């Protein structure tokens, strides 16, 4: 097993007990909840007459079911309104901080916690949402959990978990122009597979990640779960500390220097032992786009769609399924594939730096005829900041719709859905069948700037062509 890694140190620091099952009872420093996985958990608490013992360690927001156009109450979707009311009532009953729509701080749970400084190095974090791995960008150990586990954390502030192995994924070098964090993680998943990380925590290391800003690092850790890893993290450094300084919940005054000293002590040792090490060269990573129905079915935008013969034997069945579902031909170029809908947003790519970079490529251009294109900020704070910088005007002048904060079309538990066989260029994190709201809708995952390139040309385009 790994030794002297950040994962080991944070795990050990939060261990309450070793259970008879062999699992660790792990203290959870921050619990994030939203409207989808919490109602049943609170109901189970109520059935047992339990109260939340540490309400100050739980923070709630509403994100999945929030409309990004008409947010007037009651919500048009009666089920969404019911879920909203449950969250409002449950947080009030248990004294939990809740960032509701209109509070100025509502947004996607994995956007609001970092931007407020709730997410900090050395923490254990849990949320009833797969992409909780996002918070590992800060040197935290963050787990997506199920509804019964949400109940466990609400009731005891602990989780029963088996300790993971640690794989170090090292990427070195400078990314080419037009290549972003999203391309890096899609490339890693392509190479290691969607099951490659099962049983592992991924430690992302190397000069490529060191050069990334915090929001790019969040994009990488966000999709660790798509590679099968239980969590992903990056050792904290000066970039981390500069991002956190002066945020709402970050330590202040003398506590700030004490916090940095502790955070520094958590780093994986240079001679730390890992269960596995994989190394990539940043120079080999191109703008990447998925062609199939798993995040591992991706290629460089300038590559053809792979043929069955090029696939490992155990991947051929799902490749055949993907060709049929996506209506894409093996051996054909992905460039030039017509798109119907273009979506920039989600917990993967809905932050201010994503929108700034996307706006650079949207400026002075126009969304292609017949394409529906929209931009969804990840939080009310991101929206406000983008508007202060005039990004909304850039997008609207180019023909993009500018929306309110929410998860939007990533999961489509709201009015933002694909229709029929529409094909979406999406900056979100999953391209599963029916993921974006239509049982036959199709999704191509790519970076925000690649989505912009697709929107203004009406087809999958190598964004580097727009940089010439």
From TrEMBL:
It holds the Pfam family Aconitase. Its cofactor is [4Fe-4S] cluster. GO terms for biological process: L-leucine biosynthetic process. Keywords: 4Fe-4S, Amino-acid biosynthesis, Branched-chain amino acid biosynthesis, Iron, Iron-sulfur, Leucine biosynthesis, Lyase, Metal-binding. GO terms for molecular function: 3-isopropylmalate dehydratase activity; 4 iron, 4 sulfur cluster binding; metal ion binding. It catalyses: (2R,3S)-3-isopropylmalate = (2S)-2-isopropylmalate. It comes from the Bacteria. Binds 1 [4Fe-4S] cluster per subunit. [4Fe-4S] cluster binds at residues 347, 407, 410. Residues 9-458 form the Aconitase/3-isopropylmalate dehydratase large subunit alpha/beta/alpha domain. Pathway: Amino-acid biosynthesis; L-leucine biosynthesis; L-leucine from 3-methyl-2-oxobutanoate: step 2/4. Its EC number is 4.2.1.33. It is an enzyme of class 4 (lyase). Catalyzes the isomerization between 2-isopropylmalate and 3-isopropylmalate, via the formation of 2-isopropylmaleate. Belongs to the aconitase/IPM isomerase family. LeuC type 1 subfamily. This is 3-isopropylmalate dehydratase large subunit. It comes from Chamaesiphon polymorphus CCALA 037. The gene is leuC.
